[in-house]
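Slide 14.
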Amino acid sequence: TGMKFDAAGNLYVTGTSSGIVWRVTPAGQMSAFATLTGSINLNDLALDSAGNVYVTDSGANEVYRVTPAGVFQKWSTDPLLKPRATPTLFPIAALGANGIVVTPQGDVLVAITQPGRIVRIRVNPDGTAGAHSVVIENELLASVDGIALDTNGDIYAGLNIQNRIAVIKPDGRISTIAAGGPLVTTTTLAFGRGAFERSLFV
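Slide 15: predicted structure.
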């Protein structure tokens, strides 16, 4: 399930087989912002500064782009978004494209649940998907689900079946910041805003 706020305080939510991205206004009014017919499994979403919404489909292992007008566009079907054919860890979590964030520079980062891969997608000037590259791939990140970025550029990753949260430094170092306890099938992560911008919500 994906939940993200835009600059105006509207909350966007997805994560069902209905193919709907919902928008909830600050006043609590909920409406269908965009609908994708025939969707398999919309999972997570992220917004850029222009109001476009990027949505992962974990069934088809693709990324969609939804315009500010609510129009779905198939944005990326790159092979890097697909899971490993024969996962060596947690085969039950053999999903591909899952968590997603947009960086301050405008790149799109996508978490690939198996084998524990983070993919960077450049955005072309016309809004289409550009070059795809692997930021990191490591079995320590197997079952990665939701991801979040802090103000230092560190990537925080919820490791679903591992029941822990890992942080990935820009130089590729991986460490665990929390594990066990209430972290059961950790999915969505998000940093707060304003006074809570350094607080991670799970």
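Speaker note: Residues 30 and 166 are 33 Å apart (CA to CA).
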